[in-house]
Structures are given as C-alpha cells and as structure tokens.
Amino acid sequence: MSIHKEIKKVTTDTLQKMKAAGEKISMITAYDFSFAKIFDTAGIDIILVGDSASNVMAGHETTLPITLDQMIYHAQSVVRGINRCLVVVDMPFGSYQSNSEIALASAIKIMKETGGHSIKLEGGEEAVDSVKKIVSAGIPVMGHLGLTPQSIYKFGTYTVRAKETDEADKLKKDALLLQEAGAFAIVLEKIPAALAKEVSDSLHIPTIGIGAGGDCDGQVLVMHDMLGINVEFKPRFLRKYLNLYEQIDGAVKQYISDVKSKDFPNEHEQY
Fold it and tell me: Is 189 an active-site residue?
C-alpha cells in the first residue's frame, strides 16, 4: 500500500520512508489559506511557502526583495489551511547568509511565529554551518542546490546549472555535505537529469526536483505556473495542468457584462 495513503500527517520521517519505498514525493508552492486548504485536501505531500511569493504575489522581478516578516505572514496563512501535509518555509535573502547565529535566529522566528514544520535555505558548503546550527536547535532543514534564485545576480542568467564538470562536482560534494550537516531533503533546481539521478542515488535523504528530471525522489512546481495563472513563464520543465488565466479572464468579463446589462443580480439573487 502507498505510504502516501496510509499516513495522517506527513513528517520528515514520512519522506524518508517514501524514498526508501521508491514512492515519489509531491510538493507545490502556496502562499495563502485558501489555496493551501485546496492543495492539502487534494493530498499534496509538501507545501513550500516559497520566496517565489516575491515574484508571483508581490510582482518583483527577483526573490531578493521579500522580507522575513512578509514570509512569516504568508506561512501563517498557509499553516491555518492545512491538516495533513508538511509545510516548508523558505528563508528569504538576507535572513541567513551573514552568519550561522543570524540564520538560527531567523529560523527560530519562522518556527515560533508561523507554526510551520521546517525551513529551506539555499547553498552548499557555504551554508553548512548554518544548517548544522539550525538542525541542532531541533529545526528540520531542506537544502537547495543548482539554480539558486537568491544568487541570480551572481549567475546573471536563469540557464541550466552544473553542465560543466567543475560545477557538477561541487554540486555532488555540496549535496553530501548538506546531508552530513543534517538536512532532511534537498531541492535540485534546473540541473541536467543525469546529474540529478547521480546525486539522488548517492544520498539517503530525498531530493525534490524542479527542472531536474524524473529520477529525483520528488517534484515541485510553483502553483501559479502549473495552474496556468502565470502565462508568461514557459520553461521546458513546466507542465501546465490548467489554464486558469484564461478561465478567470472569461469569468470576470462575463461578470462585468452581467452587471452592465443588469442581468446580475436577478430576482433569485437578492433578498
């Protein structure tokens, strides 16, 4: 029987068992109560309260502007909407890079004020001290390697990462370092599928891929992308399951028309 169907609450231990059983892990982003409730009821394993809120909720070009307090607001909203899934909260840019003490303080603030279950931070060797300190305080940490959006100005492009041997070797080393530091899972973003498979096979903790092929232990997509709300974003790795932009556009136009023509409200829609 599927581990997914047996469990009442998804925990970090659940994810470990899913990897061991070869059962894929489903993860999606959410930023508010209503969508979190829908996703949780649908049976999603993990909700990531992503710093992608900076893009899809606040309209910024990058993830860098969103603050710790803004991330906490989104995470609080999500946690109120769920009963079953694991909630992972992104640590925003500037909340952990300075040193491990600041990283720990930020992680504690997230956990105390949101009711979330874990945090996610970007980076490999450079983040290991912070991961160790946060984990030692009893807070589960998800890592993130490959294309790390908080470093976009360093990369200069959103192209596929780790295609060259040196960067690929560093990523493999970083994954093992994060595992050794106590991370319970690692997101692999926009790297060659063969490399993602090699990394996934080398770890006993699960990997969650986005643009990293089908051999990762799980997959994650941004809700606005997979539901077709964000119509401009069309990378190869994205599968759109709905075209909500078109449906919402049509619904709103119909509503405007009904109001203008005095069709809404009708005699059955008033007191």
Answer: yes
Give the number of residues written for the chain. Answer: 271
Q: Measured between alpha carbons, how far is 258 from 254 in angstroms, rounded to an integer?
A: 6
Nearest to 62 by CA among 90, 31, 88, 93: 93
Residue 59 CB neighbour total at 10 angstroms: 8
Tell which residue, 184, 151, 185, has the closest CA to residue 167.
151
pLDDT in tens, 191-235: 999 999 999 999 999 999 999 999 999 999 999 999 999 998 899
Q: What is the pLDDT of residues 36-50, one digit of tens each?
A: 999 999 999 999 999
Nearest CA to 210 out of 124, 128, 148 is that of: 148
Answer for the pair 130, 103: CB distance below 8 angstroms, yes or no. yes
Tens-place pLDDT, residues 253-264 = 999 999 999 999
- The domains located in the chain, with CATH, are 3-240 (3.20.20.60), 245-271 (no CATH)
Per residue, the 3-state secondary structure of 17-55, as one string, reads HHHHHCCCEEEEECCCHHHHHHHHHHCCCEEEECCCHHH
Catalytic residue among 101, 164, 180, 189: 189
The residue among 152, 140, 162 whose CA lies nearest residue 93 is 152
Identify whether the C-beta of residue 261 lies closer than 8 Å to the C-beta of residue 253.
no
Please compute, for residue 218, the number of CA atoms within 13 A of its CA located in the half-sphere on the CB side.
27
